[in-house]
Structures are given as C-alpha cells and as structure tokens.
Design brief:
NTF2-like_dom_sf, transcription, RNA_pol_sigma_r2, 12 helices, DNA binding, Nuclear Transport Factor 2, Chain: A, about 300 residues, alpha+beta, Butyryl-CoA Dehydrogenase, subunit A, domain 3, about 55% helix, ECF_Sigma-70_Domain, 2 domains, five-stranded mixed sheet
Length: about 300
C-alpha cells in the first residue's frame, strides 16, 4: 500500500479527531491536509501509521485551537461549532461515544476545556486511545495525561444533562416539531417546547439575528408559526436532516442556497433550545450560501402581505 493509500484510509479518523478538537469543518480539513504534507515529507516510515498520523493531526489541531480561542473570545455574539452533516469515521464499538461527542451541546462543553485537556479527552474518551499513544500525541507524560483526562471528564460530566432522550424518541419528536412548524401550528409547537425554551443564533456579527434571544414556549411557538408560511411563500425550503448527530434542518432559499441551519436540543420529551447558525463563513461546506439579509427581508414582506 502506498503512502497516499494509507493516508486516505485513515483520513476519516483524522478529520473526526480534528473536528472534535476544533469545532470547525474548514479548520479540521486544513489540519488534515497539513498532516498529509508532513507525512509525505517524512523520510522514514513510522512503525504505526495510525498512531503517527493521529499524533500529527492532534498537535496541529492543538496549535490551531490556541490561536482560534483568541478569535472566539472576540467573536460577535454566540459562537457555535460549524454544523456537520455526517461524521466520516465509523466504529461500531465506540458508536455511542462518537455520536455523543459530536453534538453541538458536547462541542460547546469542550470549549470550556484547555486545548490540552480537550485533545486528551477526545483521544482517550472518544476514540479509546491508550495513554501511551495519548502522551505521545500531546507531548506530555502518561501521568500528566491521566490528570488531564480526569479534569476534562469532570468538567464534561458536570455540564451534561442528567437525562438524555434516546435516538428514536428524539427523531419522533423532531418530526412532529417540523410538521407543526411547516403548518404554522402554534398549539402543536407549544406542546413540544420546554417552558423555558430559547432560540439562540450564531451570526458572527455579519448576519441578521433571526429570532435570537426569544425564549419561553409561548413566545417561541408564536414566532415559529409566523415564520414558516411566509418563508414557504417566497420559495424557501426547510430540509429536515441530522446535524452533529442531532435532529436539525437546513433552510434553503428558492435557488437551493443555504440560508441557515437549526439543531434541536431535546431533553425530557421537550425541545430545550433551538440553535441557529447564520454566519455564512460556517455554511459554505454545505453548499452555495444565500444572502440571509435578502431572504429575511423577503420573508418579512411576504408576512406583511398576508
């Protein structure tokens, strides 16, 4: 097997590691490409290609994250990870850990960790690497990595909801929600929303804050019911799909361009939060991006005419 073939075989794993450390599709792809360049330039062949490439992509991702954290601290408004349609790496033995770790809620919890804690947690808890491999990847002793893992696990466990909906329950509730949303059914929406549900959006300071800051089941239900019909009248489409392993949707304009995404946080049989990504810089990997200002303006005018 050639080096290029070995690398392509491991690319899904490398991307999945980088995405969980960085929370960014574009940055993860760049980290994987840089890993390939370094591997191609290495004069000797490593004993374990998987261990070597995983270590390289981890170190690159840590460096990128350190600089990215400064930008995120200065970010306008809420920062959410870039929406991920599908996780390319599949491992039946770790499917639960993989699915949980890519959710928007989990990625936001990972933001609380230091870059080293985050990398150790991802390698150890998500992908099941042994501590010798983790230590080699992050350049710390095994004892230090064990301490980092304990601290990271403590932070993650403290932030997790106590009871999570199972996958089938989430999917059924989401299907009912989107049916009610498309139909503008206020009562149908209200009964699916938690009393303190909130709508939060990531526009990066460059996009309209479409519904952000609205909270409470009644307020959110009325807003959603008023939004869907005029959006449909201007040719908008709400494409239900799974994003970051959670029920969600991609909103498209009449030409199929991406306007924004939604992910639904579901707990206790109710939708707790609706997270919207409107920042066009975070949507390009999903397809051509629409001008959200134009779409929102057209939707508002269509609503006034009704």
């Amino acid at each position: 097997m050639t080096r290029a073939e070995e690398f392509e075989e491991l690319r899904p794993l490398l991307f999945s590691i980088a995405y969980r450390i960085l929370g960014s599709v574009s940055e993860a792809e760049d980290a994987v490409q840089e890993t390939w360049l370094r591997y191609a330039a290495t004069p000797t062949s490593p004993v374990s290609v998987k261990a070597y490439l995983s270590a390289v992509v981890t170190r690159i991702s840590i460096d990128v994250l350190r600089s990215a954290r400064v930008r995120r601290e200065q970010y306008a408004g809420e920062w959410f990870p870039e929406p991920l349609l599908t996780d390319p790496y599949q491992d039946p033995e770790r499917s639960a850990e993989l699915a949980d770790s890519v959710s928007t809620a989990a990625l936001l919890l990972l933001e609380r960790l230091s870059p080293l804690e985050r990398a150790v947690f991802v390698l150890r808890e998500v992908f099941g690497f042994g501590f010798p491999e983790v230590a080699s990847a992050v350049g710390r002793s095994e004892a230090a990595c064990r301490q980092l893992a304990v601290r990271a696990r403590r932070h993650m466990d403290a932030g997790r909801p106590r009871f999570e909906a199972d996958r089938r329950e989430r999917e059924e509730l989401a299907a009912r929600f989107f049916d009610a949303f498309r139909g503008g059914d206020v009562d149908g929406l209200r009964e699916l929303l938690a009393a303190d549900v909130s709508m939060v959006s990531d526009g990066g300071g460059t996009s309209p804050q479409w519904g952000t800051g609205v909270s409470g089941a009644g307020n959110v239900a009325r807003l959603l019911a008023a939004l869907a019909p005029p959006f449909a009248r201007i040719g908008g489409v709400v494409e239900s799909c799974e994003l970051n392993g959670q029920p969600g949707a991609i909103f498209r304009d009449r030409d199929g361009r991406v306007v924004n995404t939604w992910t639904l946080d579901i707990l206790g049989g109710r939708i707790q939060a609706i997270r919207t990504v409107l920042n066009p810089d975070k949507l390009g990997h999903l397809g051509p991006v629409a001008d959200a200002w134009t779409v929102v303006g057209e939707t508002i005018r269509a609503r006034r005419r009704s």
